[in-house]
């Protein structure tokens, strides 16, 4: 359903927020679609932890809305829409493999 609402344009360019010399630390908004990362740190926002965004958890970027809209991230089997400014503050440890498909 998220694909229908937000579209699924593949990202082909590097993230503008990540310096090229930093290979192991990324932010959630810099992930490619269906790419997975492990959370290193989150901003001090009360609603992120109850949604499952905690250090050490694996998160997958499922959808990116057009025109600077929200991102849809999957964590612990749940899909959550986050604003890009919040996603930019969620630091990931390293890039992992592609996300497993939930069928």
UniProtKB/TrEMBL annotation:
The cross-references to SMART domains, in alphabetical order and at most eight, read: FeoA (SM00899)
Name the Gene Ontology molecular function terms of this record. transition metal ion binding
Q: Which UniProt keywords apply?
A: Iron
What domain of life does the UniProt record list for this protein's source?
A: Bacteria
Q: Which InterPro entries match?
A: Fe-transptr_FeoA-like, FeoA_core_dom, Transcriptional_repressor_C
Where would I find the Ferrous iron transporter FeoA-like domain in this sequence? 26-94
Q: Extract the Gene3D superfamilies matched here.
A: 2.30.30.90
Q: Does the record carry Iron as a key word?
A: yes
Protein name, per record: FeoA family protein
Q: Which organism is it from?
A: Desulfonatronospira thiodismutans ASO3-1
